[in-house]
Amino acid sequence: MAGLTTSPAEPAAYPSPAGLAAPSPAAPTHPASAHPASTSTPASATLALPRPTGPHAVGRDTLFLTDRGRPDPWVPSAGARQLLVSLHYPARPGSGGAPAPYLTTEEARLMLAQRGLEGVVPPAAVAATRAHARTDARPVRGRFPLVVLSPGFGTPRATLTGLAEDLASRGYVVASLDHPYESTGTQLPDGRLLTCAACERVDAQPDMAARNRVLAAVSTGRAADVSFLLDRLTGPRPSWRYAGTIDPLRVGMAGHSIGGNAAASTMAADRRVDAGINMDGTFFAPVPARGLGGRPFLMLGTDAGHRPGGEDGSWDTGWARLDGWKRWLTVRDSGHFTFTDTPVIGEQLGLEDPDVPLSGERSAAITRAYAAAFFDRHLRGRTAPPRLLDGPSPLHPEVVFHQPRPRP
């Protein structure tokens, strides 16, 4: 029922990066979609993500990487492309220090300002959202599949923390990226704050077709980011101290919004990625006509915007081109940000969206269950009951399976 925001699923146009609530009247370009239950939230409010459901404790590291072979595509004067990466991993119980932070206060402030919630929600409260991973935790012995997560356009990587923690607790190493200049705010280790130059580039375009071309470049650019990250995590001289816990022969990728498009773009460009999930993202960069080399792909979206024959025709085209194992699932009563942390946090803040009845608890449970079932099947060969990907399940009655017929 409640959520931080639930803007419509991306049409073949500029996807609003709103993630908490719709902008205030000061920025009237997007309709209001979330309604504060009160005019302000106490600074002392304690926000928390749902607990991970797997058997492992979770650790978290942060990597700051520089790709010296590639200039930044949005701000060439910034020099080489840089990436900020959160790594969640299965950890030994009782090891590690303090819980890993969710966002910096300045990152939270910029995100709230973009969404029209400045003066309504204290940035410090969102920044202090309680996650469950611990810093400096010792990893569990063994080698685990790697899953890369890419966030929505204009949205920080932190908004996929709940999914990252849950997958790590189930026995995955999870790398979540902030793509520089594609988020409301990314604070680098030296204190610099990078804002969304790519958003400005999209807004500056003269028409929808030009905007879509820039957004396609966002998706393919993210594919280059992920390929570089895989080099640094699985190559001969890895950058991460616990890189030995990664099995480089079992790699998956999931993304929200344009991050979901980037999962397909990455698979098209890099054979190392074995399986992918698009969570409610328009395919601005189309699935190649040749397909994805027979590799599995899951399309998981809103029922209102991404059912077959719906407003986003890129899903019909993408489905027809997928040439391996595939599923097309939609979720009733969901919104564009259902597949992120924002519905959970929004409910705790008293923000409600009457157009999206699905609760934060159900949003998190569905996203976690189907992402884990997909990667368990395709990276681990596990199809233990309940076989969620084989058909409708009484555990998740909101999830609809589609087998669309080709258009004439």
UniProtKB/TrEMBL annotation:
Gene Ontology MF terms in the entry: hydrolase activity
Annotated spans, Disordered: 1-71, 385-408
Lineage top rank: taxon: Bacteria
Comp. bias (Low complexity): 7-50
Keywords in alphabetical order: Hydrolase, Lipid degradation, Lipid metabolism
Transmembrane residue ranges: none
Gene Ontology biological process terms, A to Z: lipid catabolic process
Protein name per Swiss-Prot or TrEMBL: Alpha/beta hydrolase
